[in-house]
Amino acid sequence: MKNNFLIALCGRSGAGKTAVTKRLSELFGWTSVESYTTRPKRKEGERGHIFISEEEFNKIPLEKMVAYTVFDGHRYCATTEQVEKTEMYIVDFSGVKTLRERYHGDKKNHRCFSGCGNRHLDCTHETAWRLP
């Protein structure tokens, strides 16, 4: 049984979001959403996203998308099913806003962590902590 929370990790590129998710996975066995994206792979074997074409992205039903954003001209989204099966999600600020508006599933305790200095997120709980 999966946990009844979702940690949304937000931050600028290079802030350490992926490193945090890897460490939490090692410590607690938590998994992370692999969002759909129209962005091409940066390298062979790249993980963290499901890389699809624009045509495939257009076939994802809007009612199933609970997080959506466009970054650098590429679209990203996560579905209710993906969120329900995981504990973590690396997402930008726009994606967090969409997630908070559209996600109405079992995971009520969204927590957001930001590595962006002064940028403030209006989240249920915003906390900074150190990993062992």
From TrEMBL:
SUPFAM superfamilies recorded: P-loop containing nucleoside triphosphate hydrolases (SSF52540)
Gene3D superfamilies the record matches: P-loop containing nucleotide triphosphate hydrolases
Top-level division of the source organism's lineage: Bacteria
Domain Guanylate kinase/L-type calcium channel beta subunit, residue spans: 7-86
The protein's name: Guanylate kinase/L-type calcium channel beta subunit domain-containing protein
The species this protein was found in: Clostridium porci
